[in-house]
Amino acid sequence: MLAAEVHAQDQQFQEHIDKALARALPAVVQIHAGDGLGTGFLVSDSLVVTNHHVIEGNEEEAIGILLHDGRVTTARAVHHEEHPDIAVLKLEEQLNDMPRGLMFADMQKVRPGLLVLSIGHPGGLENSISLGILSAVGRPGGHLNEYFLQTDAAINSGNSGGPLVNLKGEVVGISTAKLRSIGGQQMDRIGFALAGNIAERIVRDIQQRGRVLRPDLAIQELSEVTGPQAIEQDVPHGALRLRIAPGGMASVAGLRDGDVLTAIAGQPVRGIHSFWVSLHRQEIGSRVKLSITREGKRLELVLPLLPLPANDPWSDIGAEFSKDLQVYGVRENSPFALSGLRPGDALVRIRAGASKLYQDIHTLDELRHFIQQGFTQGLSLRLMVKRQGQIVELKPIDFTSLRNR
User: Fold this and answer.
1) Which residues contact residue 327 at a Cβ distance below 8 angstroms, ignoring those fewer than 6 apart?
2) Which of 97, 132, 141, 275 has the fewest CB within 10 Å, making it most exposed?
3) CB neighbours of 402 closer than 8 A, spacing ≥ 6?
């Protein structure tokens, strides 16, 4: 190849990178939460996406935002969860001349070998950019509702929450973690980004509904069938073996433990990545056709994608708690809001119905038990919280509004 041709190709490649950065960089922000530093990115003129662990411990506080143009503002969390590791922040003031929010990539086109750019603030080094590829897609996380893209683009402390973008400047993932060692052996250039379609669905729900809806799949575990197992069972490599929650929607639809899922809505399932890509394309409330293999027989079943049921009050209690029962947020006009619960409160005691005896409460599971009891038996609940060093008794909580939905 002539030197002139090589130069022309290099120049064309550089132009692609320049265009991607021109689109993405203005929307990248630096996040200051307590003593921590991280990265986030605008998806609209008022919403910022980042990792939950970037703001952990500061969920109810005002969070500092440094925009790309140097302006400083604050935001508060409107949604956050540990799994998937994501937080959505809303700017507290409406600013003029805001950059365009970033768009999310079509995850059907995301594949190993895709060129990506990681943008962030590692160690406080503002607007650091690294180039790499996607080494793999569909790396499972610690929970069913999250999965990751693996990349060799640099992801270091301070990059967390920043966008991993393609050469169109579209978000394919949220930079989340770096693998440092396996079995005592040092690893290099192995980073993980939360898949972009998980964030896209959450953002869309917040913008359209004001809250996040998830389908009640009642699938407890997915495991890939690969290699000799796939050959022996005559299923495609990467099909998913299911473990089903008894009595849940998947069970009612006819799925059983050990069924192997091969397609969703006619789209082949070839690993965790394709499962989530296909599932996230379906609307809550729709009915989706599943192709499965069971004991050598090929079957098709229809699974209604219903939201978490209204008879589970935990799915719509209108308040968010930490593991140690600190209150992160309270939705306006929810049963908890009407009781007087506020962000920053710490739940310490609870009683149900006509009982005059308060019980100490320490865990989310204990709280869930009391809420379910109050809901199913029609009992009111009363809480005592610690607020600014004082113990405060709240008004009774009435779950009638949830029972009548």
Assistant:
1) 60, 319, 320, 321, 341, 342, 343, 344, 345, 346, 347, 385
2) 97
3) 310, 313, 316, 335, 375
CA gyration radius, the chain:
23
Contact status, residue 50 vs residue 39, Cβ threshold 8 Å? yes
Residue 47 — φ and ψ, nearest 5°? -110, 135
Question: How big is the CA angle at 286 (ends 282 and 292), to the nearest 5 degrees?
Answer: 70
Q: Tell me the residue type at 153.
A: A
The residue among 82 and 260 whose pLDDT is bigger is 260
pLDDT in tens, 301-328: 998 887 664 445 555 566 777 767 888 6
CA distances from 258 to 219, 220, 263, 296 (A): 11, 12, 15, 11
Question: Three-state SS string across the chain, please?
Answer: CCHHHHHHHHHHHHHHHHHHHHHHHHHEEEEEECCEEEEEEECCCCEEEECHHHHCCCCCCCEEEECCCCCEEEEEEEEEECCCCEEEEEECCCCCCCCCCCCECCHHHCCCCCEEEEEECHHHCCCEEEEEEEEEEEEECCCCCCEEEEECCCCCCCCCCCEEECCCCCEEEEEEEECCEECCEECCCCEEEEEHHHHHHHHHHHHHHCCCCCECCCEEEEEEECHHHHHHHCCCCCEEEEEECCCCHHHHCCCCCCCEEEEECCEECCCHHHHHHHHHCCCCCCEEEEEEEECCEEEEEEEECCECCCCCHHHHCCEEECCCCEEEEECCCCHHHHHCCCCCCEEEEEEECCCCCCEECCCHHHHHHHHHHHHHHCCCEEEEEEECCEEEECCCECCHHHHCC
Q: How far is CA 4 from the centre of its chain?
A: 47
**What is the C-alpha to C-alpha distance for residues 161 and 293, in angstroms, rounded to an integer?**
39
How many other C-beta atoms are found inside a 10 Å radius of the C-beta of residue 353?
13
The residue type of 332 is E
pTM greater than 0.90 (yes/no): no
- The contacts of residue 42 (CB under 8 Å, 6+ apart) are 27, 28, 29, 48, 98, 99, 100, 101, 102
Residue 63 pairs in a beta bridge with 75
